[in-house]
Amino acid sequence: MKKGYEVTYEWVIKLLQNCDFDESSRRLGLKQVAQNSVLIDFLERTYIIAKDGIELAEQKIAWTPKTEGYDYNLKSVLGYYLLSEANLEPGNDFCLLTHFSGGVFGNGNAWPDSLGKVYGNDYKKFCRIAEKLGMVFETEKRAGQYVWSYTLLPKIPIKIMYYEGDDEYPTTLQILYDKTAIQFYKFEPLAVLHICFIEGLAAIGKQE
Predict the structure, then answer these.
(1) Full-prediction pTM beyond 0.70?
(2) DSSP state of 206
């Protein structure tokens, strides 16, 4: 029996059969390399989205996820991005992912803080990885609270909030999304994208 993530991926590929690759790539800021083929970058990986499948084409930074089905989930949400009908620019107004959940998740810790475990007490390590990935340092809000910006997908900017821990509280990292992100994704695929980003960033940090 096929796993749920395999069924979802096959459904996305089916939907891509009716996608206007020319229009979608222009509107979403993706590079079109053939009539029905576009490139999309994610954490220094480049994927090719075509009508018959989504495949990894290049890795500038090699990293290996641990979760079963990760690659299927990531390819599915990248395909959903191309299928989005949203036509707007980011508004530079950011919030936690839980803001989009309609009360299903009531706080910012709906998922385990694996990033804090990987980068905790080593802000210099986080800085090295962030710079390799093309993240941009914005400001230190107060001692031990750092703000970085990153373009997760062409129309989906995020901010990474690094809160340096102390003897009382552990280091935590929060991901904030531009409020227009929910126009490009329904909540469930946006949450999957969020999880894929966290696991990918953690995997890159673990292997350094």
Answers:
(1) yes
(2) H
